[in-house]
Amino acid sequence: MIRKCTSCNAPLAEEGAAEFGCPKCGFEIRRCVRCREQSIPYSCPKCGFGGP
Predict the structure, then answer these.
(1) What is the Cα–Cα distance from 20 to 10, expressed in whole angstroms?
(2) In terms of C-beta distances under 8 Å and separation of at least 24 residues, what long-range contacts does 28-37 make, across chains too?
(3) Model pTM?
């Protein structure tokens, strides 16, 4: 299974990507390097919580 960025749906690279639990519900959020560095907004697919 390919892990993909929650914001842009790009496949995650080994280095520089981040994975963390949603602060509201704990669902796993995945962020690629580009979205992290540019502070592209994300929203949790489970509860709708959003962040930079």
Answers:
(1) 17
(2) 30/3, 30/4, 30/5, 30/6, 31/5, 31/6, 31/7, 32/5, 32/7, 32/8, 34/8, 34/10, 35/5, 35/7, 35/8, 35/10
(3) 0.84
How far is 52 from 50, CA to CA, in rounded Å?
7
16, 48 from 21: Cα distances, Å: 17, 13
| Structure confidence by residue, pLDDT tens digits, 9-43 | 999 987 899 999 999 999 999 999 999 999 999 99
Residue type, 17: A
